[in-house]
Amino acid sequence: MAEPNFPPLPGFIPLKPCFYQDFDEIPEQHRTVCKRMYHLWILNSATLAVNLIGCFAWMFGGGGVTNFGLAIIWLLMFTPCSYVCWFRPIYKAFKNDSSFNFMAFFFVFMAQVGISIIQSIGIPGWGVCGWLATISFFSYNIFIALIMLVPTIMFTAVASLSFIALTKIHNFYRGSGGSMSKAQDEWTTGAWKNPHVQAAAQQAAMGAATGAMQDQYSSPQYNENQM
Fold this sequence. Notes:
The protein is mostly helical. It has helices at residues 28-63, 65-96, 99-121, 131-137, 142-175, 180-189, 195-217. The chain is globular, with a radius of gyration of 22 Å.
């Protein structure tokens, strides 16, 4: 088993990486989408960090300490949880062609999309600089409201990109023959955690993709009788 290499931590921190991540082990036909989901996770984490700055400015302008405290919780809790709960399942789903991991991703990522929409709305007292909180603060302090506008736009971008990603991956999964029954079968048989079955599924998926490409670009063959 490969040695964990993520997250990359400095040597002076007495902690070790928890996960192994290498996009080269993802089948080539899924690698680009998988990398985009990773970039979406980075954007989501960066948005939570910028939101913390926005909530600090909000607190400095008289917005209260509650939002700043909740912003800290959003950052510290949802950054690692989003990686573990929806990025790792889609990473393993693309790697092993696993219906179980696809279903785990859909279940969690739908909640992620809903949370991102709520964050972009910006209900006061939720620890996020969304549209409602930002627009209402323009009448008190324009400069701080402009600072709050940055995470607001980023939350909107995350929500939009998350919805698009969910739609595209769901269409791909259904188009490839995936279903809830296949995920249930994997759970019942334990195939979702069997490395030998996973390797066989990965090879089958890569072989199918290679065969489809060869059929698409191969030259047509004719019999002499047809000439």
